[in-house]
Amino acid sequence: MKKIIASVLCFTMCAAMFAGCSSDSTTTSGTTAGGNGGETTTEGTTENTTSQVEVGTGSIVINVYAMSNEVPGMIEEFFKRNPDYGAKYKVEAMVSNNDNQAYETKLNAALTAGGDIAPDLYVAEADYILPYTQGDFASFAAPYSDFIDDVDGKIKAADIAGYTVDLGTNTDGKLVALCYQCTGGALIYRRSIAKDVFGTDDPDAVGKELGAGSQSWDKFLEAAQKMKDKGYAIVSGLGDVWNVCEKAAEKPWVVDGKLYIDPQREAYLDLAKTLIDNDYCNKTDAWQEAWFADMRDASDRKVFAWFGPAWLINYTIGGQVDGKAEQGYGDYAVAVPPVGFWWGGSWLLVNKAAIENADKKEVISKIVEWITLDATEDGLQWAWANGKLNENGTKDTVSSGVVMNMSSVDGSMDILGGQNPFPIFVDATSYASSKCKSTYDSTFNGTWQEQVKQYAMGEKEKDAALNEFKDVVEKAGITVE
Q1: Separation of alpha carbons 188 and 334, rounded Å
Q2: Do residues 436 and 249 touch, judged by C-beta distance below 8 A?
Q3: 67, 98 in Cβ contact below 8 A?
Q4: Model confidence over 21-72: pLDDT tens digits?
Q5: 140 plus 285 within the same structural domain
Q6: Cβ neighbours of residue 156 under 8 Å, at least 6 residues apart?
Q7: What tens digit of pLDDT does each residue of 356-410 get?
Q8: Could you tell me if 31 and 78 lie in one domain?
Q9: Which residues span the domain enclosing 92?
Q10: 173: domain CATH number?
Q11: Rounded CA gap, 387 and 163, in Å?
C-alpha cells in the first residue's frame, strides 16, 4: 500500500462527515521519505493529491488552504446553520496532502505571493505549526484579538487546552492560531490479548501492568516479555513508541542555539534497540500496509497495543477493523499510558490581509470563533465530541475542557466495547506540553528516527548513528557539542 501521511489518512476518513462538499481533483505522483502530521517517518511512494473544494454560493470569495476536506466541511456545516452567510459568501478551498511537504510548499508560495491567490484562512498541523506562528511565516498571521472580541476571556471560559494556546502564540505574545482538537494520548489495547496475558481486560489493571503514569518504560518492557511468551507483539513497530518519546520531551531539539537531546528522545535509542533485539514488535513502519494489517488481525502475530489520541481509534484503527468483530471491533480498550504524551492536531490561522476587508472579517471571525472557542451545545466542538456531524456517530476529543466535561457529552464507543475513554484522554491533556516543539522538528525528527532505526536493526553502531544525526544538525547551522 502506498504511504499516506497521518494527517491525510485520519482526516480524510474524518472528512466523510462532510460529504456535501463538492470538489474537482487532480493527482500527481511523487516519492517521499518524509514525516506526517503525527511525526512518524516512513518510507515509500505516495500520491500527491490536490483538490479544489467550493462551499457556499455567494459573490464574496474566501480562500482557504487545508490538508483535507475537514475544515471546508466545518465551514459547510456553519453555512447550513447560518444560511445567510452561505448566500453571501463562497469558500474556495485548496486541499492538498503534505507528502514531500507539498501542502507547506503551496501554502508558503501563496502567502508570499499575496493578492487573489493568498489564503484568507489556512490550516497548519502540529508537525509544522511553529513556522506559521513563531517562525519564517509568522508575520502573515493575524492576532485573534484583531477579529474576535475578548479572546483571552473566551479561552479561559472555554478552558482551552494550554499547549494548543502556547503553540498558537507568536513571539510577541499574541495568539494567532487555535486548535479545535485535544490530542492527549493513551494506551489503546486489545481486550482479548490482555485477558490471555494478564487475566483481565480492566483498563485500570492493564494500565498498572504497563506502569500507568510512571513516566518510565520499565513495566512496559516487563509486559513486553510476557506478551512475547504468549506469542504476541506488544506494539507493531518502532514508530508506535517514538510518538510518546518525542512528545514527552521537556525541551526542544535546540536550546540557546545548541543541540539538546532530551532524555526522553535519548531513551528512544535503547527502547527501540530492546524492542528489536528481543523480538517484542513486528518491525512494521507506521502508515504502511503491514502496520494497518496488524490493526485488523491480518498478520501472523497479533499486536497488543498502540499509543495515540482519540483520532487514532476513530479514523485509523476504526477504518481498518471496519465494524467487524473478527478484526477486533469491540475488542479494543483504552488505559493510562506509562509515559504521558500528545500527538497531532490542526490549528486555524487567518491572514492579516483578509481582515483588512470588512466583509471577509465578518464571516471569518464568526467561523473561527464557532470552530475554536464556542463551548456551548451550538458550537462545533460539542457536535464533534458527540459524533453529531456524521452518519457513523464518530466521536473525538476537543480542545475545550468545558465541552469535554459537559454532562451532555457521551464518549462511549462501540469499537471499545462501550467504554467511554474521554476521562482518560482529558487527564492525558495534563501531560501535553508545547516545550518539546521547535521549528526544526520537520527535519530533525525524521533524521533521528531513521538513525535510531538503523541502529536498532543492527545496521549501524550507536556512535555512528549519533554522529550522522549531529552532522545533519550542524548543516542546519546549530552548534553541536
Answers
A1: 5
A2: yes
A3: yes
A4: 433 333 322 222 222 333 333 333 345 688 899 999 999 999 999 999 999 9
A5: no
A6: none
A7: 999 999 999 999 999 999 999 999 999 999 999 876 778 899 999 999 999 899 9
A8: yes
A9: 6-180+344-385
A10: 3.40.190.10
A11: 24
